[in-house]
Amino acid sequence: MRAAHLVKYGPSATAFEIRDIEKPKPAPDQVLIQVEAFGLNFADVMARLGLYKGAPPIPTVLGYDVVGRIAVCGENVEHLQEGDRVTALTRFGGYAEYAVAEKEVVYKIPENLPPGVAVALATQYSTAYFLSHHMANLQENDKVLIHAAAGGVGTALTQMALHKKCIVFGTCSSPEKIAYLRTNGVQYPLNYKQNDFGEAVRKIIGKSGLDVIFDPMGGKSVKKGYRLLGAGGRIVSYGVSSMNKTNSIFGKLRVLAQFGVYHPVQFLSQSKGMIGVNMLKLAEEHPEKVAGAMKSVIHLTEQGILEPHVGGEYPITELAQAHSFLESRKSMGKIVVGW
Ligand SMILES: NC(=O)c1ccc[n+]([C@@H]2O[C@H](COP(=O)([O-])OP(=O)(O)OC[C@H]3O[C@@H](n4cnc5c(N)ncnc54)[C@H](OP(=O)(O)O)[C@@H]3O)[C@@H](O)[C@H]2O)c1
């Protein structure tokens, strides 16, 4: 089978090579999926730049989410069968014609579900569901700030917060994205390139505080966000995309220092909290929680409550362009690559 290997860290044009390799064999609790398309995630860009510590050494096959048909079921797999059309989480190995996935994170999907929507549900929507329902526990009328609101996870968080009847503030970096945020229902879209987001939010909320902030950037935006929280407020930190500009140890330390220093007594006296989420860690210890999130988002999409947006569909021959597009920060919603 063919698989797109990451062979060199750096620009996308020279990073990937299609190689022929053996089809993987599923273990008893796994399935083998014939991949129709795979999704891109921001973590893939970090891995390509050599900035993702959790990625295997090169040459390697990236990829967290796939859509396709089950080719082989492991002997312990009972709820699925060969030929089922599914979306699945893969822990790497998704950029291939066949990929294996653990049975808990493989979901049967309707025949007519577009591939981009299917993979958005597997990663970005499941992540957003876990962040908003389990960790932040959004409540009606919560004032919620969503950073990178035009991105894959940001789009999903916005739809979930609106479904919970929250008041949504969303940040992004261009007028095109501001327009997209409005169509996705964000009540207060903020372009942080034009105005400091902290000052812009403060102007709107006055002396009151925000209830929830979702932060995938890390560093100084977390520090600034923490100051905007009111009593009972919580900031959910789930990414460090601001680290993608630097490969030096000093650059990384600078971003880490920019988060600020906190003491639990401070959380106690101010009644504010900070939460970190890593879905891979969660999947390792509690695959049933990831599976529960996946099941919920598929159900909510079937009901028309969630509407994943596909911001780019590329053939495998244009994998490099798809990666550049995600890296360029111009993408909105999910990017998908088909075989
Ligand atoms: N913790 C977890 O388990 C988990 C799971 C899934 C995703 N994530 C994280 O969630 C974030 C969103 O992932 P996604 O796949 O949906 O990507 P995405 O949001 O579609 O793309 C990333 C967006 O982040 C914004 N951004 C802000 N600062 C940036 C920077 N310094 N460099 C690049 N982009 C920056 C950009 O939007 P603007 O320019 O408009 O700000 C960009 O379009 C990523 O940080 C990812 O690592 C974490």
TrEMBL record:
SUPFAM superfamilies assigned: GroES-like (SSF50129), NAD(P)-binding Rossmann-fold domains (SSF51735)
GO molecular function, one term: oxidoreductase activity
InterPro entries, per database record: ADH-like_C, ADH-like_N, ER, GroES-like_sf, NAD(P)-bd_dom_sf, Zn-ADH-like_protein
Domain Enoyl reductase (ER): 10-337
PANTHER family: QUINONE OXIDOREDUCTASE-LIKE PROTEIN 2, SHORT-CHAIN DEHYDROGENASE/REDUCTASE
Protein name: Zinc-binding dehydrogenase
Native species: Pelagihabitans pacificus
